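User: Sequence recovery, please. Input:
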């Protein structure tokens, strides 16, 4: 039998890939550069579709466990659990892949290259796709991005699946002009805010793939940017995987960005700068670009070799892979459903509670569950969602919990939003029923907010404002009217928000008895909400984004400077701050022990004591923030630099050890360089930020320690 080098599993992956590519014809190589890669049967290469989704569960590929949306997973502030969730996702992906390939089904969404996670910074609450991200903070996004990538890719000899950090880089709306928009950003903001999560995914997690963004950054289209793809990604960071374009992004080069004049020029710009794989049709013109002398065959070989290296790393050319034995029964199993429920509980954030919660069903005869999101499956899903074998809506979760012991009355109350005909007043035909139900009940549970039809990706969302972005942070007017009418009945009212981004619920903050942020909460979101409402568990989620009071304080949506954006740079008081979330108990950080000094390039280990001063068993999130002193390059306020979720029995205390990473101590100067420039730093440890609004809302104050910088 002829020795075939690329089938020799003892050889390095890149050497095997290079040998495989050397055996292909030019046409065969070109066919591998598109996302729906053709088979090369004579070499034993099956067709492969690179487009697969797994943002919060295996998506678009049949039944799978559906976890809460990414923004909700961020609200857990739990990188350990997130890595386990990602491991479950890749287990289910392998279970499906193993069986699909046996049936010869290699269609879209049925492969192992997942275009997740989205680690863009959620810099503006109007951006429709923000709920795909891990929030507004680069440190939190970095830690969670690394956890997700590690969980997806596994710890074995082969990649369990391949993760993809997207959208590289400086991308967070607006959606309507993303195909032509030029994001102008300073080097300081670039390296301080927009790039850290990508860098962490590349350097720490060894992410296999990076996806470029639709927009231009400082004049260069991201999917063909020499600065981003050559100088930073492969140059500074030594990225060793492959780069994929966002879908249709290469055609934008000549259609919308107007930096090229033809498909051939666009293909050449992308390929020569390191975009290896095209989601779209532009690389169908690669051979034409070669004929015109715009690229070389070596350019093609380089990218195809990278792609084949990924397929080899996934075990696709091995006789047997360690993940081949994962059975289909691993998909949608009970253990995975249990984890999804756990995640939903940990993700929900209690924003207000005047003592009404938790509810005691023994003291209730009638509950009114009201609102367009009460019995909606859509608000469980988020976007890039999977299809679970069972959904539990908010209404169903409450019904499940109280059983036949308490009467549950349901009223839709209003549509999700109204599109009134110009010149006509909207008529709310559902309002009277909602008022009647509220008047008849001991407590009203009002389920309002948004859904993925109102906020999401251009083309997927169908909101009245266009393209998936929000024009306002307010609830839709019909829901705002419903809220006010229910409150005016005088019945104690709990507001449950289902949404993926910050809302300015100022009226609710003043008039509702309790507010629970449920997000897009996953397949069992209703059971999770009921568990919290009735005190089966204490809420423990924290906000990964700032809830602003209005859009008036925000800079222009198209302004990518960080001034007055996010908790690190904002100038006014938040409605609900980043890092904030209540529990049913009373916890406080009472002590912070830290070394007196830190040297350049070193990490720092601190000990934080947290006390549960109540008779409620709960979980809390210890949060560490740093403020640099004596440097003009510090952020305006402070920055998250550590967090840890802690389980606290009633009337207990724990001392937890946290290590502050070396990159938290330098600041970023105007040239984008990290410099050990501060004289000292103040560390704050608490259950939220060290700001006045958090202190007001939680009744606790962060403790602090001073650290001297030694070069």
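Assistant: Recovered sequence (711 residues):
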């Amino acid at each position: 039998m002829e020795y075939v080098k690329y089938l020799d599993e003892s050889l390095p992956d890149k050497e095997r890939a290079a040998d495989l590519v050397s055996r292909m014809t030019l046409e065969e190589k070109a066919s591998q550069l598109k996302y729906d890669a053709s088979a090369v049967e004579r070499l034993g290469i099956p067709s492969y579709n690179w487009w697969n989704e797994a943002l919060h569960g295996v998506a678009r590929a049949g039944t799978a466990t559906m976890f809460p949306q990414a923004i909700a997973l961020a609200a857990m502030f739990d990188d350990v659990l997130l890595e386990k969730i990602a491991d479950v996702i890749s287990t289910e992906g392998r279970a499906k892949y193993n069986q699909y390939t046996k049936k010869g089904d290699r269609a879209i969404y049925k492969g192992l290259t997942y275009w997740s996670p989205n680690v863009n910074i959620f810099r503006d609450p109007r951006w429709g796709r923000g709920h795909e991200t891990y929030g507004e903070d680069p440190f939190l996004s970095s830690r969670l991005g690394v956890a997700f990538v590690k969980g997806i890719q596994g710890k074995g000899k082969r990649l369990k699946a391949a993760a993809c950090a997207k959208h590289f880089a400086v991308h967070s709306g607006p959606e309507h002009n993303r195909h032509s928009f030029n994001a102008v950003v300073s080097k300081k903001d670039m390296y301080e805010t927009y790039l850290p999560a990508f860098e962490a995914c590349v350097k720490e997690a060894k992410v296999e793939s990076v996806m470029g963004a639709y927009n231009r950054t400082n004049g260069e289209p991201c999917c063909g940017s020499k600065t981003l793809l050559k100088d930073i990604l492969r140059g500074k960071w030594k990225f060793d995987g492959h780069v994929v374009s966002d879908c249709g992004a290469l055609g934008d080069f000549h259609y919308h960005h107007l930096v090229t004049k033809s498909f051939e020029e666009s293909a050449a710009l992308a390929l020569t700068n390191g975009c290896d794989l095209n989601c779209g049709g532009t690389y169908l013109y690669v051979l034409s670009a070669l004929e015109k002398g715009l690229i070389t065959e070596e350019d093609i070989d380089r990218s195809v070799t990278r792609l084949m290296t990924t397929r080899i790393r996934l075990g696709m050319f091995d006789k047997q892979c360690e993940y081949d034995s994962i059975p289909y029964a691993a998909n949608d199993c009970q253990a995975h459903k249990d984890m999804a429920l756990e995640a939903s509980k940990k993700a929900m954030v209690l924003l207000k509670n005047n003592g009404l919660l938790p509810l005691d069903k023994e003291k209730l005869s009638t509950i009114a569950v009201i609102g367009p999101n009460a019995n909606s499956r859509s608000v469980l899903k988020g976007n890039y969602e999977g299809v679970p074998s069972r959904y539990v809506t908010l209404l169903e979760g409450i019904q499940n919990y109280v059983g036949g012991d308490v009467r549950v009355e349901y009223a839709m109350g209003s549509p999700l939003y109204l599109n009134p005909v110009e010149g006509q007043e909207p008529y709310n035909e559902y309002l009277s029923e909602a008022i009647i139900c509220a008047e008849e009940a001991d407590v009203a549970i009002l389920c309002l907010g948004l859904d993925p039809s109102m906020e999401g990706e251009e083309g997927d969302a169908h909101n009245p404002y266009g393209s998936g972005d929000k024009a306002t942070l307010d609830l839709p007017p019909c829901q705002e009217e419903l809220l006010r009418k229910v409150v005016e009945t005088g019945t104690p009212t709990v507001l449950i928000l289902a949404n993926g981004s910050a809302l300015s619920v100022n009226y609710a903050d003043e008039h509702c008895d309790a507010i629970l942020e449920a997000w897009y909460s996953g397949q069992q979101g209703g059971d999770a909400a009921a568990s919290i409402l009735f005190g089966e568990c204490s809420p423990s989620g924290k906000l990964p984004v700032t809830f602003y009071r209005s859009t008036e304080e925000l800079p222009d949506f198209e302004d990518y400077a960080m001034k007055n954006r996010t908790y690190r740079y904002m100038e006014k008081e938040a409605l609900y701050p980043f890092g904030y979330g209540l529990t049913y108990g009373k916890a406080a950080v009472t002590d912070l022990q830290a070394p007196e000094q830190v040297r350049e390039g070193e990490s720092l280990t601190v000990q934080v004591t947290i006390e549960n001063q109540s008779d409620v068993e709960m979980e809390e999130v210890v949060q560490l923030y740093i403020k640099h002193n004596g440097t003009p390059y510090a952020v305006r306020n402070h920055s998250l630099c550590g967090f840890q979720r802690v389980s606290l029995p009633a009337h207990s205390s724990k001392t937890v050890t946290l290590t502050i990473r070396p990159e938290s101590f330098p600041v970023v100067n105007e040239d984008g360089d990290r410099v050990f420039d501060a004289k000292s730093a103040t560390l704050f440890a608490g259950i939220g930020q060290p700001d006045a609004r958090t202190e007001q809302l939680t009744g606790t104050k962060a403790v602090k320690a001073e650290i001297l910088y030694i070069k």
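Residues 420-424 have pLDDT under 50 and may be disordered.
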